[in-house]
Amino acid sequence: MIILKLQKNNIKGILFILMLIVLSSCGSRKPTVSPNSASKVAYAMSHLKSKQLYRFINDWTGVRYRLGGLDKGGIDCSGFAFLLQKDIYGISLPRRSRDQATTIKEKSISQLKEGDLIFFSFGGGAVDHVGIYLNDTFFVHASTTRGVVVDDLSLPAYQKAMVKAGSFKN
Question: Which CATH entry fits the domain spanning 50-168: 3.90.550.10, 3.90.1720.10, 3.90.600.10, 3.40.190.10?
Answer without folding.
Answer: 3.90.1720.10
